[in-house]
Structure formats: structure tokens, C-alpha cells
Amino acid sequence: MQNLIVGYDDTIVVNGLSLMLEQGEIGCFLGYSGCGKTTALRAIAGLEQSRGGTIYLNNQRLTEKTARQSFAVAPAKRGMGMVFQDYALFGHLSVAKNIAFGLNKWSAADKKARVAEMLSLVELTEHADKRPNELSGGQQQRVALARALAPKPKLLLLDEPFSNLDVVLRESLAMNVRDILKRTNTTAILVTHDQNEAFALADKVGVMDKGRLVQWQGQASCIMSLSVLLSLNS
Predict the structure, then answer these.
(1) What is the pTM of this model?
(2) Is residue 44 a contact partner of residue 189, using CB atoms and an 8 Å limit?
(3) Sign (positive/negative) of CA torsion 17, 141, 203, 167?
């Protein structure tokens, strides 16, 4: 991604965002409410239009906005999965059918095998026939993760995925999700305002402030940047 700009009317929300992730790396946008992190994630997904910049995924151009050219791949064709803050599970469907939802173009046999694989991966095999409202918050979040991973996305986007959980469960689930993403070699970007969550899950953390990425590096360097940012804002 290079020099991504997103705005509404006269307001610039994301200003000159540039970053790169390698296959299997987990990145994180960390910052306070209103800093532009969720807007950046939605622009990557194609849910928000950009005013400038380019987005590439696996050498495929997804978005390019310049004075001479405007190009954008539709969200459904970007090969991305997304896990939302409120899980967005289908209450009338079983856990297994929720996970199978994005596999409509798969054969029946392949779909069945993939759902079984995902249930095993998130350790919910015994809950396959339950409805979401019969599960705990942590279990529902794992169902949402399994559903997003089932179609084998090129990039997984997680928008404040643990914010509805208590602190203890949030940290333990973050470690569990990191383990799952690493085992499946999934490239992912997380949005959060929680430092502990960011450093528990991500390989690279970007501190965002007023629509800009203060730094995009490994955790140790980012902790230093975060300390500087907090001192400036205090």
C-alpha cells in the first residue's frame, strides 16, 4: 500500500498511509478512537473509497487513484476475509452452517471437509450443531474467525474483534487467534485501541495519530514510538 488517502467532504481521515506486509505476517493499526484506523481497514477492504494512493495484494492491483486514473476492484472480488466487532453471525444458522456460508461455490464434499477442518482448528467441533446464542462470547468470536478463514482469504481483516469481551478473555483469545493465523500462514491486519492486544497478536504495529501512521515496524520500535506519542499527547 502506498500513500493511501481517504476523506469525506473537506475532512481527510486517512492521510498518506503506506505500509507493507509479508505473507503470513500480522499487522496492527493501533490508536485512539477517531484516529482513522477503522477507516483505513475499510478502505483496504474496498468498503470506503480512496481519494489517492494504491493498494496491491499478492501483486494484484486492487486500488489506484491518481489525477489520471481511477481504478478499484469490488470488495467481493478482493479475496479478503473480515471479522467484525459484533461477530455478525447468522443467528438462525448453526455454527457449521455459519462457517460454510462463504463456500457456496465449493462442491458438497469439499465444503463438508473444509467446515470440519475449521471446526477442529478453532476447537469447536462438538458445538457444530449449536446456534450462536448458545455459545459464549469467546466461542462466537472463534466461529466468526473460522467463517472468515474458511474460503482461504489472501488477507484477513479484524476490526476491534475482541472489544466486547472481558480483559482476561480478550488477552487469552488474542494469543489463540495469533496461533491459528500462524498455523494457517494467514496474512492479517488488526485494528485495536488496546496496546496489550496489539503486542500479543501482531508482528508489526503501526501507531496511528490524526490519520497518519506514526511508525510501521516491529513491536520493540513501536513501543518506543508509542511512548513518545503518549508523552506528546499528555
Answers:
(1) 0.89
(2) yes
(3) positive
